[in-house]
Write a structure and sequence with these properties.
about 375 residues, mainly alpha, about 70% helix, transmembrane helix, transmembrane, HGSNAT_cat, DUF418, Heparan-alpha-glucosaminide N-acetyltransferase domain-containing protein
Length: about 375
């Protein structure tokens, strides 16, 4: 019994240290929770068969993950960029310069990782190459005020769907070269438009969003935007020819890159962040700790999912496609539960996720500034 007690002592201290890291002042619990939800949502979008959303049919509600999970992920990238560059008090001068260098190095690592995941050949549109480009596009905007950032995000959301539509008309996208370009730059998540979500996230990170009053206002504003995007703009799109300029540009459909989707899904992302921040100022923050652990090592969770997928991928066979054949294995719950359990144990017993640690080390080349660890 003495020996067992001796073993429990170090283990207890390690778990206590892990809890302190995950729940300490250097992390935003609401951001971790929202990021964990985004990761699980992307799992669901990849691994579940979904049908078009209909309020009156609960069986269709899983369709909520399509498009919105990845947009939430991108918006949270902006929040993280704000947090690592000073939060509500942005860095300036040399300190901001060093922070920008680190972000650029992180972007390069994420792009390389994204290309490696593309080469695995899983039937998934890998978000990481676009994610890396979005980091670079955000660099000149990091010193701007929240009001300017929100204004820029709104302008991008309204104007860039026209540019994405025009670029999408290039016939070369259908040949081998075009498909290769699309994978290298992550064009399935067109960064010209998706910059709106990252910029809005930076603005969120520049306000005291974890305060209940601010979080509540953010959730309400996000809900209002979602109603406008899916309700008003989405209805305008339905009154147009589906394949016409206005039908495409106004669309609120998932992955449509329309104005309706940009406003609706962007608003949903803001509302989710606000609600997660509100929840995490209550004792429920402990109930959702496993999801927060996933969010704390989201890059590792996302990557491991695709590596495991590549290892288990069966031939298309009678299902007609690799995606359908993998979904036929019903992998969502096993992979999701394993991810939640693995991330929780790793976070409590080891600490930072392995890929997060590795990229952090690479990005620390040179004399780094004093950076907040909450992202």
């Amino acid at each position: 019994m003495a020996a067992a007690a001796g073993l429990r002592g170090p283990l207890s201290r390690r778990v206590s240290a892990g809890l302190s890291r995950l729940d300490g002042p250097r992390r935003e619990a609401g951001v971790d929770l929202a990021r964990g939800l985004a990761v699980i949502g992307m799992f669901a979008a990849h691994l579940l068969e979904t049908t078009a959303f209909d309020w009156s049919h609960p069986a269709t509600w899983t369709d909520v993950v399509n498009g919105r999970s990845s947009i939430l992920f991108a918006t949270l990238a902006g929040v993280s960029l704000a947090l690592v560059t000073g939060g509500t008090r942005p860095f300036s001068g040399e300190r901001m310069t060093y922070a920008r260098i680190r972000i650029a190095l992180r972007a390069a690592c994420i792009w390389v990782l994204g290309i490696a995941l593309v080469l695995l050949g899983t039937p998934v549109l890998v978000i990481l190459p676009a994610y890396a480009i979005l980091f670079l596009l955000a660099l000149p905007l990091l010193a701007l005020s929240p009001s300017r950032l929100f204004a820029i995000a709104a302008t991008i959301a309204v104007l860039m769907p026209f540019a994405v539509y025009a670029i999408g008309e290039w016939p070369g996208w259908d040949d081998e070269l075009g498909q290769g370009i699309a994978q290298v730059i992550g064009w399935n998540y067109p960064f010209l438009l998706w910059a709106a979500f990252v910029v809005a996230g930076i603005a969120v990170g520049r306000i005291a969003f974890s305060r209940p009053a601010v979080a509540g206002a953010l959730a309400a504003a996000g809900a209002a935007l979602a109603a406008v995007g899916y309700g008003v703009v989405g209805q305008w799109a339905q009154l147009s020819q589906a394949d016409s300029l206005w039908g495409v540009v106004l669309s609120s459909g998932a992955h449509s890159s329309g104005i309706g989707e940009a406003i609706g899904s962007g608003g949903t992302a803001l509302a989710t962040i606000g609600l997660c921040a509100l929840l995490c100022v209550t004792p429920l923050r402990w109930v959702v700790l496993p999801l927060r652990a996933v969010g704390a090592m989201a890059l590792t969770a996302y990557t491991v999912q695709l590596v495991v997928w590549a290892a288990l991928q069966p031939p298309a066979g009678a299902y007609g496609s690799p995606l359908a054949s993998f979904r036929a294995l019903e992998p969502f719950w096993p992979m999701t539960l394993a991810t939640i359990a693995g991330c929780t144990l790793w976070t409590l017993l080891v600490g930072r996720g392995p890929l997060e640690w590795l990229i952090g080390r690479v990005a620390s080349v040179g004399p780094p500034p004093k950076v907040d660890a909450r992202a």
